Amino acid sequence: MTVDTAPGETRQPLVITGVEGLRDRVGSTLGVSDWVTVEQEKIDTFARLTGDEQWIHVDPERAAAGPFGATVQHGFLTLGMSTGLLWSVCTVDGFAVILNYGLNKVRFPAPLKVGSRFRMQVELAEVRELANGAEAVYRLTYEVEGEPKPCCVADLVFRYYN
Predict the structure, then answer these.
(1) What's the start-to-end Cα distance of the chain, in Å?
(2) What is the Cα–Cα distance from 50 to 129, expressed in whole angstroms?
(3) What is the pTM (predicted TM-score) of this model?
(4) Burial of 3 (0-12, 13-18, 19+ CB in 10 A)
(5) pLDDT beyond 70 at 35
(6) CB-based burial of residue 134 (10 Å sphere; 0-12 exposed, 13-18 middle, 19+ buried)?
(7) Would you tell me which of 20, 71, 89, 128 could form a disulfide with 63, CB atoms 3.0–4.6 Å apart?
């Protein structure tokens, strides 16, 4: 996958500092990532690494006659990109350790076809203070260019420790 930006454009992530900074942004949209183009080579690599080599992902000829008219990216590949895309939207400072704690809800409402472009919108849905840090829930919505439905929606949970 390649990330598309305008020539000379450098997007700087939003910097959030500490628990107070997280709390101040609950309920707000933090930003959106750059557009990412779906490439067959990356789908094939993911398929080999995970053993999910179903034809809908890796056989362009057969997939052309299938339900979507093209191969589609694995939902878990899309989801796996969430951390990198999140860090392109925002970073959180003021903690010693940052951990991806898991996911609360994940759905793949629409296919993500090869050659299409997508980007991830990030909302800070919830912050909960912990004895030694904080837990943040980011609501992720993956928009597909020119399509009415997102290809993925998920609640990503991170923990920040002092």
Answers:
(1) 34
(2) 35
(3) 0.91
(4) middle
(5) yes
(6) buried
(7) 71
User: H or E segment at 20?
Assistant: helix 18-24
**Token pair belonging to 75:** 């939902």
* Predicted local distance difference test score (pLDDT) of residue 11: 73
Check if the beta carbon of residue 118 is closer than 8 Å to that of residue 38.
yes
pLDDT single digits (tens) 61-109: 999 999 999 999 999 999 999 999 999 999 999 999 999 999 999 999 9
Residue labelled with tokens 């080579």: 41
Q: How far apart are CA 46 and CA 36, in angstroms?
A: 16
Q: Is residue 123 within 8 Å of 30, Cβ to Cβ?
A: yes
Closest CA to 120 of 90, 89, 98, 146: 89
